[in-house]
Amino acid sequence: MDGGATTYQRFPRIKIREMRNDFMKFELRDTDASVANALRRVMISEVPTIAIDLVEIEVNSSVLNDEFIAHRLGLIPLTSERAMAMRFSRDCDACDGDGQCEFCSVEFYLRAKCVQDQTLDVTSKDLITSDHTVTPVDFSDFPSSDGASDNKGIIIVKLRKGQELRLRAIARKGIGKDHAKWSPAATVTFMYEPDIHINEDMMESLTLDQKKEWVESSPTKVFDIDPNSQQVVVVDPEAYTYDDEVIKKAEAMGKPGLVEIYPREDSFIFTVESTGGIKASQLVLNAIEILKQKLDAVRLAEDAVDADDFGDLGAHMRGG
Strand, coil or helix: what is 123? Predict the structure, then answer.
């Protein structure tokens, strides 16, 4: 407080625009790019999920070698709602390392043999789990934009008559920083919210054809012409890609300053797509919680350093 003025601390705010099981779009306001990027990086690489980490092949007479199949199994997304509560296998003191531990691992079995002339598709739906809460993601729960859904599962291998695959797999908790198979996000992006200002007086000096030419210079549908007033209006500011094409076009037309476009440095638009292991909304909440834990750890470490420095100063003064 200074001279009777009170300073209020502003906290970041989130406003949800669109949300589905596997997709979320939201605004992050009243913060800066460092916080936005920290949130993005935590969502990609530090929110834990469960993925197959160890594969024991018993029989494999398919055309794919053991390592190839193990790699494909690791990349199958598994439902990971309880991943935050699970232990990392490296920190678990309740298991003996064989994978049979309810606190840090989940067992899967696969038994498939082709006995017909028709090719047999072995998919993620053929994996038998020891924990009903951790299963391969059922993509019929995540319909595509056209409303269609895929309930066939992810193909692991195709078997011809007489070929067989038998294996045991262990799924463990991990984070994307250790391996991409543990990343819960298909993609996470953010952009600065654009602040667009049209110089109305200068725009009125253009003919209708010039306005159309200027509007069409934008590679995305940011501007349009109102059919009634014939004025240029902003129809979708978020479609602007910071390509500066409309600014260059205005300069080429001898109208510099026709439009001014600035990124709002305290407002960001996030797009989050989940792999299906956890819902997109839960992915954001988990990332915020992890980011809070990291900030608390930094604050506690700083307090400890300050306490040590104060103690050293006191000892020095007593010694003096």
Answer: strand
**3 state SS of 174:** strand
By C-alpha distance, which of 153, 149, 246 is closest to 206? 246
- 173: helix, strand or coil: strand
Contact in structure between 226 and 209 (CB atoms under 8 Å): no
303 CA to centre of own chain:
32
State the Cα angle at 190 between 185 and 194, rounded to 5°.
Answer: 160
Q: Which helix (H) or strand (E) holds 196?
A: strand 185-198
- pLDDT at 48 exceeding the cut of 50: yes
Angstrom distances, CA of residue 171 to CA of 20, 101, 139, 152, 176: 27, 11, 19, 22, 15
Give the DSSP letter string of 259-315. EEEEEEEEEEEEEEEE-SSS-HHHHHHHHHHHHHHHHHHHHHHHHHHHHHHHHHHHH
Q: Is the pTM of this model over 0.90?
A: no
At residue 96, the pLDDT reads 62
